[in-house]
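Risk register update: the risk of archive-format incompatibility is retired. Evidence:
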Amino acid sequence: MSDLSASSEAPSPRLFDASPFESVPSFADVEPGENQRWTTWPAITPSERGPQPWPDWVVTSAGALDTELGILKTGKEADVFLLERAVPDDPGGRTLLAAKRYRDSDHSSFHRSGVYTEGRSTRNTRDTRALAKKSEHGRAVAALQWSFAEFDALCRMWELGAPVPYPVQVNGTELLMEFIGDTDGVAAPRLAAVRSAPDELSGLYDQVVDLMRIFAAAGFAHGDLSAYNLLVHRGRVRVIDLPQIVDIIANPQGLDLLHRDCVNICDWFTRRRVERDAEELFAEMLAASYA
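Archived output:
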């Protein structure tokens, strides 16, 4: 920061006191290039940022640039892109993020949303009417609801210690979260792609049960759990795709969805010679939810 003090021949101006702030933004002498934008971090409200304390790798500088590096995954309701958030000329101010961008219902092939949204409320009555009528505004609201629902779910589960990606921020229909993969941008494989011996798979199963128990103890089921939304990174299982998380009690189909999660997981492991009983797992999850 430049010296703002006046000379001895002029009255001293009132200096800006930065001490109450965590940091003073510094802007690089650059302009965003192709596939780049200024970081959206300063533009969002505190409630749209991830739980504190923020991990050390989260880049909060207003002088950072977001660079889109490619697509990681296409889905029924959203696409996930690889994003680099970095401060120019600062090797330590760089991180890779997964940017999940939800589409409105006109461009989405996800048609079972009503199963998951039962028991959820919409505070804005105009939005409620628009959703019911499926108007253009309603379709936009629906996309926003999915992004914020997933952000809220990730925040809650992160704070409970579940192995989910850290939710960095949500901004409209874009959710930025921790990228699970290597520093060179290679994403961690899904559990479905893992080829391990039965004893190693047994350990991975135990990790899946542990994360399901955290969800159940908080009164929730993933709702769409399978080997395709579980990642394995450095021997650790991480669960992704949480927009459809369901309240086991408030959602009339909550227990059915929990049971389906149990069946999906046990069937997958059993087909790989790690025999597990879905009904036993379901009973364990019920016990955890009522403990």
